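Supplementary Text 2. Reproducibility record for the structural model of the 151-residue chain.

All settings were left at their defaults, and a single model was retained for analysis rather than an ensemble. We include the record here because the model underlies the residue-level annotations in Supplementary Table 4.
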Amino acid sequence: MGTEHDTDDLKRLAPTLASLPKADPFVVPEGFFERFPHQVQARVAKPAPTALLPVWMKRLALALPLAAALAGAWWLLRAKEAPAPEVAVEIPEAGIDELELLEHPEAFAALAEEGAPLEALAPTSVDLTDDELAVWLENESTDPSELIAEL
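Retained model, structure tokens:
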């Protein structure tokens, strides 16, 4: 009695909802649980579809960027190495005695008086190019005309 009244109200308020069949939606077909594991295993055991790319192309796709990175790193490291500067004239380092002679001209004169040959006391001649001689004269603030007059 009360249910008919509720059903009439439901038909009047929501006709679509009232027209739905009254069945249990959670019904499992007969033998489902016996067949299900076999069906799943049959689908899983199928061979995988063939790969789109051959194996060697996959390896090549991994190796090429790695080779490019290594080549770039080698090039950058090699480019940073600066070449050794070229030396125009090698000047031998003076010993302590020679430096003292340069600072005290009287010691140089005393050695000359003792009988040491002047060639041993004076520096040996150095072959200089014209450009190197001009730079040396400029650094020493020497006038070339004065040198020519002394000779």
